[in-house]
Design goal:
The complex is a heteropentamer of chains A (about 375), B (about 375), C (about 240), D (about 290) and E (about 240).
Chain C (H helix, E strand, L loop, with lengths): L2 E9 L4 E10 L4 E5 L6 H8 L7 E6 L2 E2 L5 H6 L2 E4 L11 H7 L7 H14 L1 H5 L10 H12 L6 E5 L7 H16 L3 E5 L3 H7 L2 E6 L2 E7 H6 L1 H8 L3 H7 L1
Parallel strand pairs in C: 3-8, 3-9, 6-7, 7-8
Antiparallel strand pairs in C: 1-2, 1-4, 4-5, 9-10
Helix pairs in contact in C: 3-6
Chain D lengths: L1 H31 L6 H18 L4 H24 L6 H24 L14 E4 L2 E4 H22 L2 H11 L1 H6 L4 H26 L7 H15 L4 H21 L2 H18 L14
Antiparallel strand pairs in D: 1-2
Helix pairs in contact in D: 1-5, 1-8, 1-9, 1-10, 2-3, 2-4, 2-8, 2-9, 3-8, 5-6, 5-8, 6-8, 9-10, 10-11
Chain E lengths: L3 E10 L2 E11 L4 E5 L6 H8 L7 E6 L2 E2 L5 H7 L1 E3 L12 H8 L4 H6 L8 H11 L14 H14 L4 E5 L7 H16 L3 E5 L3 H7 L2 E6 L2 E6 L1 H6 L1 H8 L2
Parallel strand pairs in E: 3-8, 3-9, 6-7, 7-8
Antiparallel strand pairs in E: 1-2, 1-4, 4-5, 9-10
Helix pairs in contact in E: 3-6, 5-6
The structure holds adenosine-5'-triphosphate (ATP) (2 copies) and magnesium ion (2 copies).
């Protein structure tokens, strides 16, 4: 390694462990893109504290054991100046423990499971939306509908995962309070490969609203099954998957099928937030495609870089103790909007937006102040 | 030690004629290994290295323990992650239940985790050990999944997919790994010594007989059910302890990391690679495989090519040293001894002893010497 | 000479098991190899049939070398072997097992004809035709193995202990069949621990010991050689019984 | 009630896809006594081949099989020659290692060429369905099931009605004896491996058309496939079909009537119970007796 | 009371009645021969006696105790050892290790102690010497020739010193000279109190060695008596010996 940590003139090194194989490899790839875009941008602007930024990536193969090794390697061997987080709650937990052991701050964008923040660590910061509230904007939108048009029943299915299940449960509570009955509620194992029985159960429940706590593979399987079964719910929202741009469209067979599908998120390509437009255009320049092809993993990663950069700049130092203190006290800007951490490290300022695929675009539809179009309700039928 | 000589003959190699001279070398070899293992983290003190060393020892100990049952009895179990996971959950639950804080105390819970795993091995073994060969392999896989699914679904005990946390020791990063390293080293040494005793006892011979022909062994008075189950429990006990130490080290466990299918495959691979049924085999397998995979993941993992390189290394080792590394190396050494000694699989001297005098004298050594 | 082994040296990974075997089998005769256990008799067979490659030495069959040929190629040359143990396909029926003896034949009607002849010869084959071969008794299996080798019409048959496990009546049948084969012009090379019976059946006797041929000659001569008799053919058990 | 019926029907149809994937495994297992850990990876490779053909050359998924099946067959024959044949002793055990290595090599190459993104196969029929009574039967499942039945039947004929099949079974049961009656056991092994791998091209296509996949998906597959073939009894083709269908039906029905999280548990518990009663699997045979 | 008594044993496999109400008794201290045509049920009877097969009906008594429901390990423990017709040794263990598997374990100490240091080791080596396998004592048993395996199996049964030994075709595939020595050895062990029940098709061996012979036919006992009686019995001639 170049040992950038000790020299004050060489580049600032930032250590990151991401998954290029295993369960999280698809997200790992998008996250890598986000981190790299940020580094490119800041270096183009003259770097951080006047020094260039260099990212050191290690692959963790989606294994917590490897994450443990990786962050120790990054800290003690590569002597990196700063740490960025890995992808997923599962990997963020061991990573934050290691970072804590060496007094490092761990800023991350995709480790939002509640258990990350109950470990009693003061060095972990999640720049993204606290997971449990993710679906609330959707639930609130439905709850706010006039009683006459408000759907009467909802079907819920969620993967047994600390990321998805809390969101679905939270949405369900709001909807039930608003009088939307639960026609179906099932948790299914994360390893499921055959989704037909769950889909069949939801089809059978004939609910008007479908809420799925899914990642990409499951949601596309559900969509295919609903399509085949000619089941057209009036509203269909998934915790994740529809926000993954091209990958999502590929896995469901094209944008026509995506019409009307909703997803909650803290970000969208046209969000009016510092640096967002630039990031979007650079992403397209670098990786091609259109702005709706951008996975929401990208801005999550990008924001991590932005927040750390602001804190470091404020301190004019790479000192980790100061960094942690600053992160706890300050308010920061990111492509996902403002960031302010509470004492556990969750972002209190994060906004939950509701997005919907309309005419091949994923656009914000709720809350009204950011909506570029009204919600398409009921959702269009599946294409023939 | 005569260790290597014995196991070697049962792997189908020439006999232990050289064992006498072999023995001092072995003692020196094992002592050297021991000393190297003790001073290693003091010399290479970087936590990045000691972390890998720690994981390597975890696998070495688990692989050795796996071998005590599977290597000797020939029952290839792909469900030892059940014991590893039981160890993980036992220590996590007990620490939470007894409010044990991070520090030395949780290590005291480790043997309990081993005992818990051994207890789990009883119903597991009673069911699985009634079957053989491929059916056994698949039953262990199935039981593994049952346990993993239970860990997911018995939320009251395991917290389901949110996982459990262990107490965090207050040690600083630069010395943090050392206690873990030495604790697992002790477990490893215990496992190796146990493995050695089993291998050289009548009990171990019975396991080996079961491997070759279980029904025949029964017909010679071997209480196969009891022998298998006890070895299975012994094996589980050590794997459970490994799990507990590992869990304490990584500090958060989930159903899919504690009960990890890859763990099942990995320890079996290590034993195969090093030499199934040998004492040093699983150890060596872990010593090679674990650092190599971790290193490859770190160094070229970005492209996904680490898997390709790993696979190719694997293939090369298997195709070049098909019996595993230990037996292959041993054969090499024995060849050298055999230059001076006669090979035991020499041409048959006059067969029935009583007939011998009438036939021409026919010293087997001459032929053997000229051949090797 | 139909088959001729010259100075054959062979072994299984370790040392040499055959240490320069010289052996000649004359066409149209029965040759019987006897010798102590572990002398290398079966190894001679595995070398001839191409399963084990000799280290040095020559094997000529009808004047052409067999060295380096695969077992199938050896079989095509007209050489069939019945090994000493377990050569049935246990989960296949007796009938399938016997028919597989003619695997090399393409002519289906010929296969059928041969099968009919064989089942006429051996009642066990007929009666147990549709049962799994693995469920037969030891002797019955041995008989099926023997029956199977009759499916091909080879010029040389190698039989490794055909008598083993057979009851006296069946044994006579088998020996009679061997004689019939010889009369039909086949050549037979057999190994027998039932040495006296084997040599009485044979024209030619070979005594092997420690991987070498110790004596080779007309079977009468071998049988009557007092030294050989004492060393390899055993005394009579009943005589000893009388002494006890 | 109709829900249960639907669970059973879709279980049967998805079972067909699994049978197709398992058939090659059971064949290789039965004939060569080799546990081909790479079978799952071959399935995924087959799926990616279909994907590549359909995305880049716009070749229909089923038509593409005329390309992918021969390609996978040749690949299988080459790999057998290169990797399995050199194993002279302890083949059963070593082959586990070799095929595991093969699996991770395939996985690594797929990451390299196709990235880790989730992929799914599409054609006009993947979203179509046919109304039957109160519900719809997805067309792709019907097609995949039909494909599975056709291929399994062909394989059955090959194994039990041809001379090649007889030589395959003979080799399975007694290799040494097969050699002695003139069977070219090496050729049999190569062809068997080839056929076993070729089947994954079809299995992979059917899988990819019904489920999204990544290079990593083979881990989930292989354990399920292994379970199926042992459940069925090794080497039994009809058994593989019935076991696959049984597994999927049990899971579907449990999932619908009780809960998806217990579906696999119920299946595995049933599996353990059945194997305890019939260790040779549902349709396996024991041919050995003590004597 | 006979040492071993099998009463009315029946055993069917599918349509085949391997044993049909078969009863035999073996006296303490005898060498009893069991002969009969191929497939007459001799091996099946051995399997039933030694616990490898459960009889459909009938009981087996050893020293007066019913052992029909015991497993092979327990029956061996009671003192019945057997060899197999299709030899079964432990192919990957060395010849010496094979010898030690059968040696009785006395308590936990002997189980956990080193076998190579056990007191029976010398006896094992002596027996190997007797069957002519000393030079192969460290070779894996799987590399032995057919006859050598048979001898090894015999040797490891004998080293265990069971009270009663069942031998299934001990002479098949064994060199005649060695058969002579085997006979001697069996006689000597018999004098020391070991009881033998021997299945064998080698008539010379059976008639010369056994003091009592039983003939099986179609799963039942056809005849029994001294070797001379049996040999002269026309039913036996018809069914087994032929003319
Ligand atoms: N597969 C093998 N590996 C190593 N050594 C072997 C192997 N097979 C046989 N041998 C050795 O070769 C020698 C000769 O064996 P072979 O089987 O030819 O004897 P044989 O004369 O047929 O004896 P038998 O009468 O007992 O059948 C024996 O000493 C045996 O130990
Ligand atoms: N497991 C089994 N399945 C089917 N049939 C069996 C089984 N075991 C034995 N038999 C049948 O029972 C009969 C008796 O067999 P057994 O082996 O006892 O005969 P044997 O007297 O020992 O004959 P041999 O002299 O040939 O050894 C045979 O017809 C055999 O096919
Ligand atoms: Mg032989
Ligand atoms: Mg018998």
């Amino acid at each position: 390694s170049t040992g950038g940590g000790s020299s004050s003139s060489g580049p600032i090194t930032i250590g990151i462990s991401l998954s290029t194989s295993g369960d999280f490899s698809a997200d790992g790839k998008a996250f890598t893109q986000g981190y790299q875009l940020w580094a490119k941008d800041i270096n183009a602007k003259g770097g951080l504290l006047g020094r260039q930024v260099k990212l050191v990536f290690l692959n963790d193969a989606s294994s917590p054991q490897q994450v443990t090794t990786n962050y120790q390697t990054l800290i003690t061997q590569d002597k990196v100046d700063l740490l960025f987080g890995p992808f997923s709650t599962l990997l963020t937990k061991p990573a934050s423990v290691i970072a804590n052991r060496y007094g490092y701050a761990l800023v991350e964008g995709a480790g939002g499971g509640p258990s990350v923040f109950t470990q009693g660590l003061h060095n972990v910061f999640d720049v993204s939306l606290p997971v449990a509230n993710n679906l609330n904007s959707f639930a609130n939108y439905i709850a706010a509908m006039p009683a006459a048009t408000r759907p009467k029943s909802a079907a819920y299915a969620t993967e047994d995962d600390p990321f998805t299940q809390p969101q679905v449960d939270s949405a369900r509570a709001i909807l039930e309070a608003a009088g939307v009955t639960t026609a179906y509620y099932k948790v299914y194992p994360a390893e499921t490969t055959d989704f037909t029985p769950i889909a069949a159960g939801m089809v059978n429940a004939k609910a008007q609203v479908v809420v799925t706590g899914t990642l990409l593979p499951d949601v596309s399987a559900f969509i295919q099954a609903f399509h085949q079964q000619h089941y057209n719910p009036e509203a269909f929202i998934a915790t994740a998957g529809p926000d993954q741009g091209t990958q999502f469209l590929q896995s469901i067979g094209g944008a026509a099928t995506a019409e009307g599908i909703m997803v909650p998120n803290g970000w969208y390509p046209d969000l009016n937030a510092p640096g967002n437009a630039q990031m979007v255009s650079e992403y397209i320049a670098q990786y091609g495609g259109t702005k709706s092809d951008i996975s929401s993993d990208v801005p999550e990663a990008y924001s991590v870089g932005q927040v750390i950069a602001q804190a470091v700049t404020q301190n004019n130092s790479l000192d980790q103790t100061k960094l942690i203190a600053t992160l706890h006290s300050g308010t920061f800007q990111s492509v996902q909007g403002p960031v302010k951490f509470d004492s556990t490290g969750q972002n209190t300022q994060a906004q939950a937006y509701l997005f919907q695929w309309q005419n091949s675009q994923l656009i914000p539809v709720f809350p009204a102040n950011v909506a570029t179009a009204p919600v398409e309700f009921p959702k269009a039928n599946w294409p023939a | 030690m005569a260790t290597v000589a014995h196991t070697q003959t049962s792997a189908g190699q020439p006999g232990r004629s050289g064992a006498g001279r072999w023995k001092p070398f072995q003692i020196v070899f094992w002592l050297a290994c021991l000393i190297a293992a003790i001073v290693f983290p003091l010399v290479f003190s970087s936590p990045a290295i000691t972390t890998i060393a720690f994981f390597t020892l975890v696998f070495a100990a688990a692989g050795t323990a796996w071998n005590i049952f599977c290597g000797y009895s020939g029952y290839i179990a792909l469900g030892h992650a059940v014991f590893f996971g039981s160890g993980c959950y036992t220590i996590a639950i007990l620490c939470a239940h007894w409010h044990i804080a991070g520090g030395w105390l949780p290590f005291a819970v480790v043997p309990l985790a081993g005992v818990a795993a051994a207890i789990v091995a009883v119903p597991f073994g009673v069911v699985a050990l009634r079957t053989r060969r491929h059916t056994f392999v698949v039953i262990t896989i199935a039981i593994f999944f049952i346990f993993q699914l239970l860990a997911y679904n018995l939320r009251g005990i395991t917290a389901g997919s949110s996982g459990l946390e262990l107490p965090i020791p207050p040690w600083s990063g630069y010395v943090f790994n050392l206690p873990f390293y030495y604790v697992i080293l002790v477990i490893l040494i215990l496992a190796v010594v146990t493995s050695w005793f089993v291998r050289h006892s009548k009990y171990g011979l019975e396991l080996l007989a079961i491997r070759d022909d279980e029904d025949r062994a029964r017909g010679l008075g071997v209480r196969t059910g009891l022998v298998k189950l006890s070895a299975f429990m012994l094996s589980a006990f050590f794997v459970g302890m490994c799990g507990a130490v590992w869990a304490y080290f990584v500090e958060s466990i989930y159903p899919n990391t504690a009960f990890d299918a890859q763990f099942d495959v990995l320890i079996a691979l290590m034993a195969f690679l090093g030499g199934l049924g040998t004492i040093a085999g699983p150890l060596l397998g872990a010593l090679i495989l674990q650092p190599v995979t971790q290193y490859l993941t770190i160094s070229i993992g970005q492209s996904g090519l680490n898997l390709v390189v790993e696979g190719v290394i694997f293939l090369a080792v298997i195709l070049l040293l098909p019996q595993g590394i230990v037996p292959a190396v041993r054969e090499l050494i024995f060849r050298r001894f055999a230059r001076r000694d006669a090979m035991p699989v020499a041409p048959a001297p006059p067969a029935p002893a009583a007939v011998a005098p009438a036939t021409e004298p026919n010293p087997p050594d001459s032929v053997a010497a000229e051949r090797s | 000479m139909l088959l001729e082994l010259t100075n054959v040296v062979a072994g299984y990974g370790g040392g040499d098991v055959l240490r320069g075997v010289n052996l000649a089998v004359e066409e149209g005769t029965i040759t019987c190899i006897v010798g102590p256990n572990g002398a290398g008799k079966s190894t001679v067979f595995t070398v001839i049939s191409g399963i084990l490659k000799p280290r040095t030495g020559q094997i000529l069959f009808k004047g052409k070398s067999l060295v380096g040929l695969s077992p199938q190629q050896v079989l095509t040359r007209g050489l069939v072997q019945v090994p000493q143990n377990h050569s049935l396909f246990p989960a296949m029926t007796v009938r399938e097992n016997v028919e597989l003896g003619a695997y090399m034949l393409r002519d289906r009607s010929l296969v059928r004809k041969r099968y009919d002849e064989i089942q006429a010869l051996f009642p066990t084959v007929r009666e147990r035709a549709s049962e799994q071969a693995g469920s037969l008794s030891g002797g019955q299996q041995r008989l099926v193995e023997f029956a199977r080798c009759l499916m091909l019409d080879p010029s040389l048959v190698l039989l490794d202990e055909p008598s083993m496990g057979l009851d006296p009546k069946t044994l006579r049948e088998v020996f009679k069949t061997i004689t019939t084969m010889k009369e039909a012009g086949r050549t037979i090379l057999l190994v027998e621990q039932n040495a006296r019976a084997g040599l009485r059946l044979a024209d030619h006797g070979v005594v092997m010991e420690s991987g070498q041929v110790r004596l080779d000659g007309p079977s009468e001569g071998v049988l009557n050689n007092p030294e050989i008799s004492a060393l390899y053919l055993g005394g009579s058990v009943s005589k000893q019984a009388a002494g006890a | 009630m109709s829900l249960v019926l639907q669970g059973i029907v879709t279980g049967i149809l998805t079972g067909g896809v699994y049978a197709l994937m398992a058939a090659g495994l059971t064949l290789i297992f039965g004939v060569m006594d080799i546990i081909n850990i790479a079978q799952g990876a071959f399935v995924i490779l087959g799926a990616y081949l279909s994907y590549w053909l359909s995305v880049h050359l716009h070749i229909d998924l089923f038509l593409g099989l005329f390309i992918t099946i021969p390609v996978m067959f040749v690949l299988g024959v080459i790999l057998e020659w290169l990797l399995i044949r050199p194993l002279k002793r302890d083949r059963t055990q070593l082959s586990i290692l070799v095929t595991y290595a093969l699996a991770i090599i395939i996985e690594g190459l797929l990451y390299f060429f196709f990235s880790a993104d989730n992929v799914k196969l599409f054609a006009w029929y993947t979203t179509q369905s046919i109304p039957v009574g109160p519900f719809y039967l997805p067309l792709i499942y019907l097609l995949a099931f039909a494909l599975s039945v056709v291929l399994l039947a062909a394989l059955y004929v090959l194994l039990y009605r041809t001379k090649f099949g007889r030589s395959v079974r003979a080799t399975t049961q007694n290799r040494a004896a097969a050699l002695l009656i003139g069977i070219d056991v090496e050729r049999v092994a190569a062809l068997t491996f080839g056929v076993g791998v070729a089947l994954t091209a079809a299995g992979g296509m059917a899988y990819g058309a019904t489920t999204p996949f990544t290079p990593n998906s083979h881990y989930d597959l292989i354990s399920r496939l292994l379970v199926i073939i042992i459940f069925a009894g090794m080497g039994s083709l009809g058994g593989a079909l019935i076991a696959s269908v049984g597994m999927l039906v049990i899971e579907n029905v449990t999932s619908l009537l009780w809960s998806p999280v217990w579906a696999s548990t119920v299946f595995y518990v049933l599996l353990v119970i059945i194997l305890l009663v019939r260790p040779q699997g549902l349709f396996g045979k024991f041919a050995t007796r003590n004597q | 009371m006979s040492l071993l008594q099998a009463t009315d044993i029946s055993k069917a496999f599918g349509g085949i009645q391997a044993l049909n109400a078969c009863s035999i008794a073996v006296e303490q201290g005898s060498i009893t021969g069991l002969i009969g045509p191929n497939g007459s049920g001799k091996t099946t009877l051995f399997n039933v006696i030694t616990g490898y097969e459960r009889p459909d009906t009938g009981t087996v008594q050893f020293k007066g105790a019913d052992i029909s429901k015991y497993g092979p390990d327990r029956i061996f423990g009671l003192g019945i050892g057997r060899t197999f017709q299709l030899t079964r040794i432990f192919p990957r263990l060395t010849v010496t290790e094979n010898m030690h598997v059968a040696i009785k374990r006395k308590g936990l100490a002997s189980l956990l102690g080193r076998w190579s240091a056990s007191s029976e080791h010398d006896r094992a080596l002596q027996l190997l010497q007797f069957v002519g396998l000393t030079h192969l004592k460290d070779a894996p048993a799987g590399s032995l020739s057919y006859g050598q395996r048979k001898l090894l199996e015999l040797a490891f049964i004998l080293v265990a010193e069971p009270q009663m030994v069942l031998l299934d075709e001990p002479a098949g595939g064994i060199n005649p000279t060695l058969i002579g020595q085997l006979v001697e050895r069996i006689r000597e062990l018999n004098r020391q109190g070991m009881t033998f029940l021997i299945v064998e098709h080698n008539m010379e061996f059976v008639m010369g060695l056994c003091n009592r012979v039983m003939v099986m036919h179609r799963g039942a006992k056809l005849a029994e008596g001294t070797p001379e009686d049996v040999r002269a019995n026309p039913a036996v001639l018809e069914a087994y010996l032929g003319d």
